[in-house]
Amino acid sequence: MYSTGDKKVFKKAATVILVRHSESTGWKLFLARRHHKQSFMAGAYVFPGGQVENYDNSPELGSYIKKSPDFNPARILQENELPDQEALGFFIAAIRETFEEVGILLGGSVSGDFVSFHDKNIRTRYIEHRRRLYASEVTLGEIAREEDIVFFPDVLVPYAHWITPEFEKMRFDTRFFLAKLPPEQRPVADATELTESLWVTPKKALEMHCRKEIMLMPPTLKTIEELCAFKSIDELFAATANKEIYSILPQLSGNCILLPHDPEYSIEGYKRPAATSIPSRITSENGVWKTAYYNK
Asked: Domain ranges in the chain?
C-alpha cells in the first residue's frame, strides 16, 4: 500500500479484460460475479483481478518471465516514473490473479506456446497448483519451476487506470489490461471470491445490467460501454495499442459521479480537457448505474 498527496491509503491492484473470438457475434468478454459476502463490490459482475502482492514484485520471478527485448513495463503502462520492478508487478499480479480466480494461465513454453489444459492429467495438476497458489502454499515461481514454464506479461495490453474515489472505504489503484483467451484453456470461477460467470458481448452485458440481471459497478460499466465500439478483437487491440492511458479518479458531485473529462470535474492533478461529446458522468437510476452526458 502507499499514500498519495491527499494522505489516503490505496492498495495497488490489477484486473484483466479477458476476450475471445465468437463465430456468431464477433467477440465476447468474460465476467464473473463476486461472492455476495465479499467486503468490496459484493454481488457485482467484474473482470478477474485483485491486489498486487509483495511477491509479484520479487526479482526471483525474473527467471520465469518471457518477454520481448523491447518490453518495458513502465513505458507500456505510460508511467515512466514507476520503478521497473514495481511496474512489472502489475503485470505479474494480473497473471496470478487471473489464474487464481478463473484458472486461466497466461504462460507456457519458452517458445511461446500457451499451456494447454486439453490433457486431463495436465489439467488436474494445474487445478491443484491453482488451489495451492490461492492458499499461499506455493508461489508462481515454484509452479513455473515444477512445470518448466514461463509467464507471458507481454500478452497483456494496458487499457485503463482507475482509482477508487475517496468516498469508498476500500480504495484501490488499479491497472486494467486486455488479454486474449489462450487456446485450449477455459475459465472456471473459483467459487470463493467469484461464483457465477459468463461470456457475453459488451452490448448484451449492458442490456443485462439495465434489466438488473447482472450488476456492473461504474468502472466496469464505463469500460464495457467503451468496448461496444469494436466489432472485432483485432480492431479492439489495434485501437488499445494507441490509446492514451491516464489516471481516472471519479469525483462525487451531488447525486452523480464525475469523470476527469467532465466540465465540472475539479480534482487537481486528475482533471482532463473537457469533452462533452462522450459520457462524462455516472448516475444511479432505480438502483442501476448509468453513464450520462454533461448537460449545462
From this structure: 2-245, 250-296
